[in-house]
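Onboarding guide, step 5: your first structure request.
Type a short instruction followed by the sequence, for example:

Predict the 3D structure of this protein.
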Amino acid sequence: MKLRDENKKSRKLPVPAIILLDLMLIAAGMSIFLLFYYVIPQNYNTQDTQVVAATTDTASTFALPTDTTTTDTLTSTANTTETDSTTTDSSIVDSSTDTTASVITTDTSDSATTSATTGTTNRTKGQNTGNTGTTQIAADTSAGSEIASEDIVTTLLNSYSSDNMQITINKNVMGTGSDTVTYYVADIYVTSVDYLLSAFANDTYGKNIKDTISGMATDNNAILAVNGDFYGDSEEGTVIRNGVVYRTDVVDADVCVLFTDGTMKTYSPEDFDADTVIAQGAWQAWTFGPALLDGSGNVLTTFNTTDYINGENPRTAIGYVSPGHYVLVVVDGRDEGYSRGVTISELAAIMAEEGCQTAYNLDGGKSSAMVFEGEYINQPADGGREVSDIIYLAE
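The system replies with structure tokens like these:
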């Protein structure tokens, strides 16, 4: 009997082996969780949550400018050169976009651990979770003055004109040496917001479903496309696309809404009410931010963002000049001598100089890209990355 008890004792695992086994089990569990949460595509079943109302017969229409050679948003302080100018063929055929797409209209007008109190962000390289853990960060007022006084060399790259839209794309360069900034401005006029669209990767709403900007642009016969807000990197935040409501969560990031009457407004988390904007005819709603301008063309005094996002980075922004007139800006970065990227304050100043009344920061970093007729206009940082959604123009 005593011998049997001793044999039982001898079969017990030593303490170091038990600890090692526990660690291996924890690591396996964490790996499964991270794989499911960050890697495996998840197709959300939204049949019960999509809200679709009337057609765009009720959407406003706008007149295109008569002068197709210039736009009213070129910076007046720029030293302008026109090298390698190209006029594109305006006879692109696109039969895939139905301009009577559904829209809400009713009877009234890179993974992060964040701190909401400090706005600091610890990020895992290569992962991106949007503008979360925000705080109010004071704008750098000197940045606006410097942008306004910069000599900007502007090169016309491409243009497109039809009965439904006019697009002019310029490359702007300012600064020298390590302080050089290169950014691309698409000045856009449309006769209806029907032509300013959003698309999901693989035409599927869900998490971790991604594609290249050029791939999505090709799939949707886009004339012009930029990255959106990378909605699919999170399970929260308001998502309204082409008049369809997918979710209306309110997080701590600003929200940008484009309405069927052509206006565009930005909202703080405290001021945003999904039911109200839906009733007013929300056509698109993006959640990233921060908002950049006050609605009257002035740079905000504080930005609802994080220290990480506030720093120098590649950028994508959408701006509103007037109903039917919009600006898309992509700033390259992380490439010394070509483009260092810009801060949020500098981006806001750029959007103000472009004549925008309202402007909004979209996903940036390696996501920032602009594609025209299937070709990249800019040079995405580190070759770019796949994202979940685009903003695009199509007929």
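Each response can be followed by summary notes, for example: The two ends are 88 Å apart (CA to CA).
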